[in-house]
Amino acid sequence: MDPRVLTLRAAVDRLRRDLRAYPATLADREVADRELATLDCALAAGVPDTAVLGHALLLIAAAAGSVSALAAGVHQLRQAVELFGVPHHPTETGWSAAHYN
Asked: Where are the transmembrane segments (predicted)?
């Protein structure tokens, strides 16, 4: 199996665990959960499309906001997505995945 897929799967699993363990209300928790499920489906099909990866990462990072308890998991996810060559482009709001270094 492609080691990038294994790394991404581990990052998805870790962030999912982090979200479950986070006790406070997170306004966009459903968005993050949905996008993690999207990544699971993409991984089940093999090497995921970079557009799917980039879109999911942006939505997950936006949903997690600046929650420090989730920052390490989001960072791990970003690093795993980078392995697939997903570029970091700012959105209209100026956010980019590179923000989560």
From this structure: 52-74
Q: 49: which DSSP letter?
A: P
Task: Centre a 10 Å sphere on the Cβ of residue 38 and count the other Cβ atoms it contains.
Answer: 18
Q: How far apart (Å, rounded) are the C-alpha atoms in residues 7 and 81?
A: 9
Please state the pTM of the whole predicted model: 0.83
Tokens for 101? 């270094």
Contacts 24+ apart (CB under 8 A), 40-49: 40/12, 43/5, 43/8, 43/9, 43/12, 46/2, 46/5, 47/2, 47/4, 47/5, 47/84, 48/5, 48/8, 48/84
Phi, psi of 27 (to 5 degrees): -55, -40
Q: For residue range 9-44, what is the model confidence (pLDDT) as tens digits? A: 999 999 999 999 999 999 999 999 999 999 999 999
Distances (CA, A) of 88 to 9, 27, 36: 20, 25, 19
At 51, list the tokens. Answer: 């557009």
